[in-house]
Amino acid sequence: MKLKKIVLGMAAVTTLATLSACGSKEEKSSDGNTTLTFQIWDKNQQPGMEKMAEAFTKENPEIKVKVEVTPWDQYWTKLQASASGGEMADLFWMHPDQVYNFASGDALLDLTDYIADSKLEMADFPSYIGDGFNIEGQQLAIPKDYGTLGLWYNKDLFDQAGVAYPDETWTWDTWMEAAEKLTDKDAGVYGMIAQPDGQNFWYNLVWQNGSDLISKDGKTIMMNDPKTVEALEYGVSFIEKGYSPTTSDQANTTPDQYFESGKAAMMIAGSWMATEYTAIDGLNADVAPMPKNVDRGSVSSGMGYAIANNSKHSEEAWKFVNYMAGAEANLIQAESGAAIPALKDTQEPWVNTFPTINAQVFVDAEAYGHNSMHVSTRDAWAKTEQEYILKIFSQEISVKDGCKEMAEQIQTEIDEALE
Fold first, then answer.
1. pTM (2 d.p.)
2. Which CATH entry fits the domain spanning 10-146+301-366: 3.40.190.10, 3.50.50.60, 3.40.50.450, 3.40.718.10?
3. How does the average pLDDT of the chain come out, rounded?
């Protein structure tokens, strides 16, 4: 799973608005069986998705499912292009950042009535995931999984520095003190990686400090709230004090490269990184709960299964999605280790896939998770946020001034988007 963001912009919405006249490519074999195309973006999850599809076909031999992988960097562009050309896959992964774009173009099948006529219970999934795909009363995707964040750490570097491993008692003070002790400039080792990235760093700090990114009604930006400013000041101080690589350093060597090569003792990263980090030879890593200030706070967001509104096989596609939402499929997904399944009481096999780390941290983080960055006006202000955050973390502008200017500009963009 990835929670990174791609902005399609209003041109995509305009193009998608022509979809109702188009139809998806029909695939039927000579024996009358149906083949569904299923588009995903993560090759690490492909084996798990194919195993789920095979289990479905075993129960429904007249329906076959072809899993197609498009890398994240091209996924949304391809999906939008296929939508405008009337050649969308029958079903595909949907992200809460993108659902507004495709909903505006009427590209997604409304699943509300299908759900009502099935045994599927939306209450069996975290409400914020299901609600994130419900646009103006239309349920446009069924929850697939969720991803949360934790504090990853290098046990060997902690041992060498004589610092106790992080645990649920850690606060912002403990975190900063540990970063200082773990930083070894002679060895080129940093105590922490403070990324100019919301998902993998500063969004979490904002929630941990009792603030938010935007008001609950999605109309008022909160980037200049004193608690938000304080959270960003705390985050930037890792760089100011020399405990973290600078933004220019991170542009040359990625945070993952720092951590995986043993040059960073701590970093915030998601549950979806467990497969990669635990496979690195020589990396003795583990994960702890998010440090706490006013609260504990973590990004917690999920993906969904969506069906093309113009699919010629909508009934078969729904049958598959309904299966994918059930216990059997979610347990297969859990056992694959690629993502935490969204269906309640199916997470334990995912945890057991990673016996060398405290993977339960990620399941528990759902209880203090937030996803308020997924709002209808997101496209209007995401670029402004990114530009100002980079300036703030590069120390080209003070946190206080940067937050003030950022909030003013974003509020204007929100107001215009809501007109």
1. 0.86
2. 3.40.190.10
3. 91
